[in-house]
Structures
1.
Amino acid sequence: MTSPMITIRDVRQAAEVLRGKILRTPLVYSSTFSKMTGCEVFLKLENLQQTGSFKIRGATFKVLRRRSRIGGQGVVAASAGNHAQGVAMAAAQAGLPATILMPRWASITKQEATRSYGGQVILEGESIEDGIRKAKELAEGGKTFIHPFDDEDIIAGQGTLGLEIVEELPDADTIVVPVGGGGLISGVSLAAKAHRPKIRVIGAQAAACPAAYRSFREGTPVRVQAEKSIADGISIKQVGQIPFAVMRELVDDVLQVSEEEIGDSIVTLLERKKVLAEGAGAVPLAVLLNSSLGKSCKGKVVLVISGGNVDHPLVERIIRRGLFRRGRIMRFSVCLEDAPGSLHGLLECIAREEANVLHIYHDRGGRNLPVYQSRVELELETRGPGHAVKILDQLRAAGYSVSPSRHDDAFE
């Protein structure tokens, strides 16, 4: 049924080894997303897993299964974040040193998290591939290399997530899984299809780095050029050979989503479910909400929220951009007579429309302003595009000359 390199027996063995050593993460029903899409939507919340992502599964199984073969120099891995943290924690729990190669652009937050789990971090190169090359060099000196996805043990460990889904929801119809190098989706498909051969397993990928999408359609691993993506955890330029052998046989489709759709899904998960997901973790919801699932969007659909390790500054930018796109935040400027009470009158008009003032900047010294006028820049929280338009209409009806902000769509 599957690639001879790895079978469902390996996944079940991984589940036994990992029992009590990782969290069994919750599978929760979402009435909100179910109403939005017309199917029964469940979220597998791996963002609540130890180290904040599913990667601890494969890393722990690899270390424990091969413990007797790992020498005193310990393990070495390459990752921008989640695999790094998973390997560092797995090694620490096994009493082994861990050396982690991270690209120079890896976030400080993820570097420090990896160090906090006991990993020695070395910044190397501009890509994960650069780190993998260096890690393999270090492995020649006695360290044990742990690949992030192109490894049977890693796939088996990640597959335990799929076992948990089908054990808890045995009649699931579709599972949507983020896909980068392919380790997670190949493991999940092995577990799910062994339990229910007719279940559909769909890969979700950022269009900025469509390696799995193109490989799936061309029937062979394809190397792609990657653009910068919010979903950095799945920005892998080429799917692994071992995962692809499983994917080609067991995965039903791989779909793409845009950066805007990923950002909107992060905001939606936060706002509607109070779930913080990183870009890769939000990609399954983006696939569900952009209607590309087609016939797969029926019955019981499980979205794998694969991780929640997102930098705080990035979260803030994503939320603000998402709210702007939805018309929930608007910006504009108004020229006022520079006289007592002018600003009070403007704010009273806004208050009558029940908008919330987030920021205000009062400029009396603008280059093109007459000396008797001032310019007020406002940022408001609204209920949506219709509310924003109504606010503008009422301001203009009250005699205010309102100018658009280049960041606001309510004027288009």
2.
Amino acid sequence: MISNRQLFLLHQAQTSLYPLMIEIEKAEGVYLYDVNGKQYLDLISGISVSSLGHGNEYVKNAIKNQLDKYMHLMVYGEYIQSPQVQLAKKLTDLLPPNLSSVYLVNSGAEAVDGAMKLAKRATQRTEIIACKNAYHGSSHAALSLNSNEYYKNAFRPLLPDINFIEFNNEETLQLISNKTACVFVETIQGEAGNIAPQNNFLKKLRTKCDENNVLLIFDEIQSGMGRTGKLFAFEHFDVVPDILLLGKALGAGMPIGAFISSQKIMNLLADNPILGHITTFGGHSVIAAAALAGIEELIAHNWMQEVHQKEKLFRDLLIHPAIKNISGKGLMLAIELESFEFNKQVIDACIEDGLITDWFLFSPNKMRIVPPLIITNQQIIWSCDVILKNISKFTYN
């Protein structure tokens, strides 16, 4: 009988020539279990998705309850569906007053696409500015915001009139002008290696955008939903965007994205043209129910309040001559090692030992630490022991 492994290679489109090929049978809490019963601690949360861990009972019950009522009914925005409405209300209750209108989509990349259209419609300008080494998704429009030619050259031509500033380099803010529609920025740069803003960079960016009537867009698809110790990472920096992007952990394990702005700006998508943005499955009732339950569960527990202490524990334990730096904020961290080759050896050894981690697209010499927020101190200690053991294994061999 042909195996799932063979079927995977024969019939499922691949994203690389070297997939991990771990066949997972179940997942619970911070752990994944393969078909042979081997246990893996998930130190990357499915890339910043499973912040509540795997199989949260409150979220699962919300999904089951909604399944008994209805699933898909109509394209987004035509019918009044309680899960969509209640999720939008919950999000706007938790956000500043100018972020009062939510458009639900299927993924972070779709949220990026929608925000690009919204900014052009609102400003009647075409130039879009993003940051070098930023990652906003892999769709055609989102890929246009990628500064790395390796990842986008094969798919040109992409969108025109895209320019780039450097994250944490205020001198490059001079590129922002009255021709600019919007600036996209990750509040914490993810695939660059979890880089936090320094020296009031976001405040200076906000000022420059205000001077030129440019919309400021914060991509919190990775950094949002409690990962940095606050529900939204921008809350650390006393800066509020004009448009906020969410995804990944927002769905509590289900696929979702959202772009959020003021009602005045968002209403521009409803007229001239009508249906200025439309999606069939965005805001799907079951997924919206899961997302709402995920927010409620996150707020009901102390996981966000524990993030700073857990970050400190990681930083206190991960001390080794081969570790050059630990970047990031909260439970969105990165270990800097000397090279990708060394990092990959350590990562592979960690996976063999039952600890799942990986590297970053634009900083491949860094190891990703983005665990579920529910991770315990004991699990952090074990994870650090495994990492240090394998760093030493390849350092001193």
